[in-house]
Design goal:
mainly beta; four-stranded antiparallel β-sheet
Length: 121
């Protein structure tokens, strides 16, 4: 059973920093793309940042220059370093990954359970 487990959320003041981690566990062949999404009660889940297996990254305009996504393929882990946090960054952050279960023939998509990030003004 493949699982994605996030950690690192919490409460921080505006201007502060947090680092989220998401580790994949279970039996699988390899991990393709990994991403971070976020969702508030008022909004749909939105893409925050993504990173390909080779390291190419993409960011939403709202976090570009403030957030950095990275990954450690040896640890099957993706990170999101969040700096200069704003109250509007408050949301539940979800990890997402495309994982090859047995070979690179096809991948399955997985979500983590989410971790709350709250930025106070």
């Amino acid at each position: 059973q493949v699982q994605l487990v996030e950690s690192g959320g919490g409460l921080v003041q505006a201007g502060g920093s947090l680092r989220l981690s998401c580790a994949a566990s279970g039996r699988f062949f390899s991990i393709n793309a990994m991403s971070w999404y976020r969702q508030t009660p008022e909004n749909q889940r939105e893409l925050v940042a993504g990173i390909a297996r080779g390291g190419r990254t993409n960011y939403s305009d709202s976090v570009k220059g403030r957030f950095t996504i990275s990954r450690d393929n040896a640890k099957n882990t993706v990170y999101l370093q969040m700096s200069s946090l704003k109250p509007e960054d408050t949301a539940v952050y979800y990890c997402n990954a495309d994982i090859f279960p047995r070979s690179a023939t096809y991948s399955l998509n997985y979500w983590g359970q989410g971790t709350q990030v709250t930025v106070s003004s």
